[in-house]
Amino acid sequence: MNRARILAVAGKEWREILRDRLFFTMAFGVPLLIMLVLGYGLSLDVENIPFAVVDHDRSELSRDYIHRFSDSRYFHLLGYAENEGGLSRLLAASRIRLALVIPDRFQERLLADRPVEVQALVDGMFPYRAQTLKGYLDAIGAEWNRELLVAFLGRTRGVTPERAAELAAPVRLQTRYLFNQALKSDWSMASGLMMLVLMVSPPFLTALGVVREKESGSIYNIYASTVSRGEFILGKLIPYVGVSCFNILVLWWIATAVFHAPFKGDPFFYYLASVVYVICTAGIGLLVSILVRTQVAAVLLTMVITFIPAMLYSGLLVPVESMSAEARFQARLFPPYWYLQIAWGAFLKGLGWRSLWLPVALLAGYAALLWTLGLALFHKRPTR
Amino acid sequence: MRDWLRRLRVMTTKELLQLSRDPVLLIILAWFFTADIYIAGSGISMEVKRASMTVVDLDQSEASRELISRFRAPRFQVKELLFAEKEAAARLDRGERMLLLEIPPHFERDLEAGRSTEVQLQADTTHTVLGILATGYAARIVGGYATDRALEKLGIDDLQLAAMPRVEARRRVWYNPNQKDPWFMSISELMTVITMLSFMLPAAAAVREKERGTIEQLAVSPLSPFQILFPKVIAMTLAILAGTAVALFGILLPVFEIPVKGSLPLFFSVTALYALAVSGLGLVIATLSRNLGQVSMLVIVVLMPMLLLSGAWTPPEAMPWLLRELMVISPLYWFIELGYGILLKGAGVALLWKKAAALGLLGAGLFGLGAKLFRRQFR
């Protein structure tokens, strides 16, 4: 390894990045833009769900019941339908996700102390949304029934409203949300997005950097030069890893300053762990670039390898804990899973070296493996 | 006119040949439409299963044991039962447990005396999905227990229950009655794959000619820019439709057993329309950039928000108003509405024609813009 030669390759690469102005802008701009857009938009909250009602009763009580839904931030009343057929059309056209059918004599029966059955149709297309919706339905319904019971007890047993309330709900659940008190997905999402962005952008930069030379043929200059394989790869990747290391800071700033995610951990630890992660993901790009010859193939292959693990198997959108055993094992094979532990640990839980040394060590091992493989597979005497 | 069609056909054949001679690309295509969709659909679920919990029972009474016994599989898993608070919270902090349920002393005594009491649940909500669902289920369990105790205390049995005012909500879940996640996940992934490919392939094919200089040859040929551009799109769309058929008949239907309610020809027509619309977007990008490096960076900028915000992976309703409105310019938004509508909901043309028209309009606009920008490069 000759330092001067590494620096020469790195210098050449850096100048190339600088002179392709669009590419240069985007090397910094893409992570920033994605972080901002997804940070604002990507959210797992189930709120503002459009629903429609068929109210066969049209009484004061039925309107009151509907208001329980429309007044909550979870539901948004789109309107009333004439009959059940209208509701099923609205559901099929995805205009609404929930439909309520209130039978006639709703008020009459309730006032006469009789039970009433209301029908709720839930759109099951997106199972997570359906599950959450059912939870809201139950909660609103339970609260309504509790109030009915309180009023009923007051009337029939002659107890005071306070006493009736105590009798109607003898046990209450007090819930405390740890680490994410407002239960806003923003906090988890903003810190988690660092994982996604740093998984996708470094490999693209490195893969394109190497394959570009292959496709244009300028790599033959390298083959014919005194630069060794190791020097070439190192020099080639240093600028890209450098760009991504700078991007870590920008992303961290966005997560904390723009999205107000609390950062409770040790910044130095987190930065170091992120650099290890970036080296690791850049290694993925390196490996891709060695396997393929064209840039199209490089881009597509990078998408395949980075996107799915980062989105589905990292734990960002889909909880790893509730996957099947094989899927849980698969998730642990990919670096994003481990980096997400680090990101959430450092941001929300304030954890540091003591609890998170294992993920960092695994990422470092991963990086070493990828780079060694890349080095071993890169030849200056290509067979093809 | 006959010449025109012949040129189109010849160019399309050329594009298909070119595609078929890139083995790496073909392998990637095959992977995308089979294994990738299988991986995304199987084993993945957004459900609370075996949420690990620690229970601190400071009462150790029959009532507390009864309540604890209601937290059971498959949703919850009581990992340990402690009788003192010591050490319990630390397990949560270390991330070993997700929930901590604490039952206060005198729990049973208060219940017997008809005083209301409070149990406490602490939840690790780092993961929002689990946080929302698990606390929801816990609230339901405690609520159910409270109702049972209240009725028992008041001496109200089932018979008397019929003489009480209450609203029973009969819930029915349509289109996916058992809320099977693979149905949703695999279709979402198929749409993601179609999006990526119809974005990337025509754009790459167009810019590659620019990079290699073969565009000069085409420019001096008797072909019009449209005749150069459109065959690329036709060829890639054909490849994508073939891939979609493989995914649908090879994975979605046999493996995940998705009951297709609507018409498959309609689904394929919509897919073709969508692929055309997205390739128009790809062409716009291809004309804006000089090399593939630039293309792929631009593609990521457009693709990631489009994929993640259109509703393929998260409920779109909770997005900020502005973004939600902006999503109407995302072709994927319309494709999701149409695709799920046809496959899972069995919606037909009568219900969907407006959405299909919107997608077609968007596609025509994007494609027209792409072709116009591309044409300008020849001058």
Q: How would you characterize this protein structure?
A:
The complex is a heterodimer of chains A (384) and B (379). Chain A is of the alpha/beta class. Helices cover 68% and strands 9% of the residues of chain A. Chain A has a 4-stranded mixed β-sheet, with helices on both faces. By secondary structure, chain B is of the alpha/beta class. Chain B folds into 2 domains: 2-43 and 179-376, no CATH class; 51-161, abc type-2 transporter like domain (abc type-2 transporter like fold). Chain B has a 4-stranded mixed β-sheet with strand order 2-1-3-4. In chain B, helix 4 links the parallel strand 1 (51-57) and strand 2 (76-82). In chain B, helix 3 (35-41) runs antiparallel to helix 9 (181-212) and helix 9 packs antiparallel against helix 13 (292-309). The radius of gyration of chain B is 29 Å and the shape is elongated. Chain B starts with a helix and ends with a helix. Chains A and B meet through helix 2, helix 4, helix 5, strand 4 and helix 6 of A and helix 2, helix 3, strand 4, helix 7 and strand 5 of B. Strand 4 (115-123) of chain A pairs parallel with strand 5 of chain B.
